[in-house]
From TrEMBL:
Protein name as it appears in the record: Biotin/lipoyl attachment domain-containing protein
Lineage, highest ranks first: Bacteria, Pseudomonadati, Spirochaetota, Spirochaetia, Leptospirales
Needed cofactors: (R)-lipoate
Subunit organization: Forms a 24-polypeptide structural core with octahedral symmetry.
Source species, domain of life: Bacteria
Organism: Leptonema illini DSM 21528
Keywords: Acyltransferase, Lipoyl, Transferase
Residues covered by the Lipoyl-binding domain: 1-79
Signal peptide location: none
InterPro entries hit by this protein: 2-oxoA_DH_lipoyl-BS, 2-oxoacid_DH_E2_comp, Biotin_lipoyl, Single_hybrid_motif
Length: 83
């Protein structure tokens, strides 16, 4: 079995000009499951959780808490097992 790295990006959460990473629920090296809430993103209108798309392990967090990001920016890297 090989491993594949998947970049986790800021999803399109509507008409948001400013998105802030307000907190991470995981650390690099931590195992995560599909649909786990990895971090919370806040716009001027609402808060949105970033959910994990696959079961795997967080390799790196590329946007620390307090970062201002935009749709399409990379937030973290997830490593998953490939069949």
């Amino acid at each position: 079995m090989s491993k594949k790295r998947i970049p986790l990006m800021v999803p399109d959460i509507g008409d948001a000009e400013r998105i802030e990473v307000v907190g991470w629920n995981v650390q690099p090296g931590q195992s995560v499951s599909e649909n786990d809430e990895l971090c919370e993103l806040v716009t001027d209108k609402a808060a949105f959780p970033l959910e994990c798309p696959h079961t795997g392990q967080i390799v790196e967090i590329t946007q620390p808490r307090g970062s201002t990001v935009k749709v399409g920016d990379q937030l973290a890297i997830l490593e998953v097992e490939e069949a």
